[in-house]
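Next comes a single protein record:
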Amino acid sequence: MSSIKITLTGLALATHLLSLTFVTTAGAANEITSDEVLSQARKEQLSHIVKQDCGSCHGMTLKGGLGPALLPENLEGKSVLFLQHTILYGRTGTAMPPWKPLLTEQEALWISQQLKAGKVADQ
C-alpha cells in the first residue's frame, strides 16, 4: 500500500508542476511581443480583417452589435490568451465562428494584444 501512496503523491506533484507550467506560460504569453514575427503588411491586413469582418458583428467601431464590444474597457478581466482562444476556436452556442482555418496562432495573438491595447479601434 505504501507504493500506492508514493504513486498518488507523485501523481499529485506532477499535476501541480504541470499546472504551474501552464500558469507560467499563460503569464508569459500576455507579454509576448509579436512585432518581430508579423510583417507590417500583414498587420495592416489583420487590422482590416478586424474592422471589416469582426466589425460586422461587433460593430464597425467595435462598440458592440450582435457580438459584444471589443474595446479595452470591455475586455478588462479577459486575458490575451482567452481572447486568442476565442478568436481561433469561436464560442459554442453563439455567432462567433472559429477563425483557425484563416489565422495562425501568432496572428490571433497579435489581434488579441491590439484589442486589449485599444489600437485597432483607434486606426
